[in-house]
Amino acid sequence: MAEVEISAQAYVKMQLHAAKYPSCAVNGLLLAEKVPEGSSRDGCLLLTDCIPLFHNCLALTVMLEVALNQVDLWSAANNQVIAGYYQANRHIKDTSPHSVAVKIADRVAEHLRGAVLIMLDNTKLSGEYGGPAVIVHERLDGKWTPKDKNLVMWQDWVGTRALVSELMELRAYGRLVDFDEHLDDIRRDWANGHINERIGALAPTTNGSA
């Protein structure tokens, strides 16, 4: 089983998306750096970013197809690939990957071996909880199974947690744009370049495990 490393940028944006719509289910795509075969990182999936998708209806097929196409083109131009899917369920204690999550994650896994499905734990989103608010799943024998936590790595978890708390306090989630909002006004940037810049200025850079 391969390791997965989650960057501060990918983690923080997932949390901001869930925080912006606390009464809704939200979902999005996870991006990874494109790694040449035989490189030193071959075998470790580095999740570099996430693209927030929907908060209104997660299962709209037409809108999903539009989003997948645009994100695929954008990520390829930025030397990245779609490498996973994340979702926060509507009910605070529900962390199960239901049919929509499984369907979309399966779609991603068809194109990338080692793709992951991340379910957010809504009870731990404040940033005050000591551990990560995610449950990482991997696809084994056709089923999504929780991944060994020892194989989930972090770029300085303590610093990432502090960054989440700081941005929550600043209510940075109010400036996050998901694909639903982009469809309402195409001038709005679903790649969230402004949020990425803010995270980059504050994010920890030391590699380590949780």
Task: Note down, in words, how this protein is organized.
With 210 residues, the protein is an alpha/beta fold. The chain has one domain: Cytidine Deaminase, domain 2 (3-Layer(aba) Sandwich), CATH 3.40.140. 34% of the residues lie in helices and 24% in strands. The chain contains 6 helices and 9 strands. It has helices at residues 8-20, 61-77, 99-111, 157-169, 179-184, 193-202; strands at 3-6, 26-33, 44-52, 80-88, 116-120, 134-140, 143-146, 152-154, 208-209. It has a 9-stranded mixed sheet with strand order 7-6-5-4-2-3-1-8-9. Strand 6 and strand 7 (143-146) form a beta hairpin. Helix 1 (8-20) packs parallel to helix 4 and helix 1 (8-20) crosses helix 6 (193-202). The longest helix is centred in the first third of the chain and has 17 residues, at 61-77. The radius of gyration is 16 Å and the shape is globular. The model is unreliable at 206-210 (pLDDT under 50).
